[in-house]
Amino acid sequence: MASMSSPLLVITGGGQGLGAAVVRKFADSNWKCIILDKNTKPANDLQDELGKTNVPNVIECDVASTPQVDAAFRSIAKEHKSIDALVNNAGIVRPGPSHEVEDEDWMELVNVHMGGTMRVSRAGIGLLLASQSPSIVNISSVCAALGFPGRLSYNASKAGIEAITRTLATEWGESGVRVNAVAPGFILTEASKIIYESKTADIKVRAGRTTLGRLGRPSEVAEAVFWLSSELSSYVTGQVLVVDGGFLIEGSTGPDSTYRSPESIRSTARIKPLN
After folding, report:
1. Residue 75 burial (CB < 10 Å; 0-12/13-18/19+)?
2. For the segment 111-163, what is each residue's pLDDT rounded down to a tens digit?
3. Which 8-state DSSP code applies to residue 104?
4. Which stretches within 198-235 are classed as H helix?
5. Is pTM beyond 0.70 here?
6. What integer pLDDT is reported at residue 274 of this predicted model?
């Protein structure tokens, strides 16, 4: 383990949003958390909030850069003999119509999401193998499973992350490394609040698309990440855990004349038995 008392998490993009929620969950569960982030100010603020006992180090790192990623893990290896969980969370969004996607934006998103997941996992595998119960959790999205409009590069990148998850789980399973992904739906983060307040998107419409009728909380995603990272999920690998309030199974868009009542859908009275 990373130390005599606390297991060790390394997370990318852990300074704010979902990443910060994950760090808080792990810290509350007596884990130590090392944050790799391109923007270190929010990460340093989180470190000040939680204390250096819980967040011993913040490392400036752009996951799109192999030299920076490799340097970050060399730095971690100087202080720790192993890491117990690795969460690939860093990501960006460049919304826009598919026919207007610029090559530069496409390459940036692919390089951050897919490339970042690959190179961080590649750099961290040595330290993970030294753990008694190593786990990788990659952050995907429900967008990997549907054609969410205006997110061509993002959707493709998240689908790629799920393919990476299955491949690494297959290759590294014999060494005891579990690799899974979490696919959040519409989560009410500080960043998404800006979108709703500016009327760029309608929070009521998005909430209405879920079976539970609400947006998710960052802490609910963090709970899923923690479960997959801990020994509570010791026989789970190569899976994508969807945390979306039922968005993918429901997908309702409002009143629809083709929609039958739940009672009629569930009723077997209309079904004729086979002779």
Report:
1. middle
2. 999 999 999 999 999 999 999 999 999 999 999 999 888 999 999 999 999 99
3. H
4. 203-208, 218-229
5. yes
6. 63
Q: Is 164 helix (H, G, I), strand (E, B) or coil?
A: helix
* 235 in catalytic set: no
Write out pLDDT tens, residues 158-183: 999 999 999 999 999 999 999 999 99
For residue 187, how many C-alpha atoms fall within 13 Å in the half-sphere facing its CB?
24
The CA–CA distances, whole Å, from 157 to 153, 165, 251 equal: 6, 12, 22
For residue 159, which of 116, 113, 191 has the smallest C-alpha distance?
A: 113
- Report whether 107 contacts 155 (CB < 8 A): no
CATH of 8-266, one of 3.40.50.720, 3.20.20.70, 3.40.630.10, 3.40.50.300: 3.40.50.720
CA distance 134 to 141: 23
Q: Cα angle vertex 36, ends 35, 40, to 5°?
A: 85
Catalytic position from the list 154, 196, 235, 259: 154
Q: Write out the H or E segment, with its range, that includes residue 233.
A: none
φ, ψ for residue 270, nearest 5 deg: -85, -10
**H/E segment holding residue 26:** helix 17-28
> Who wins on pLDDT, 208 or 136?
136
The one-letter amino acid at 246:
G
Q: Are 157 and 114 in contact (CB under 8 A)?
A: yes
As a whole number of angstroms, the distance between CA 260 and CA 16 comes to 42
CB distance 140 to 181 below 8 Å: yes
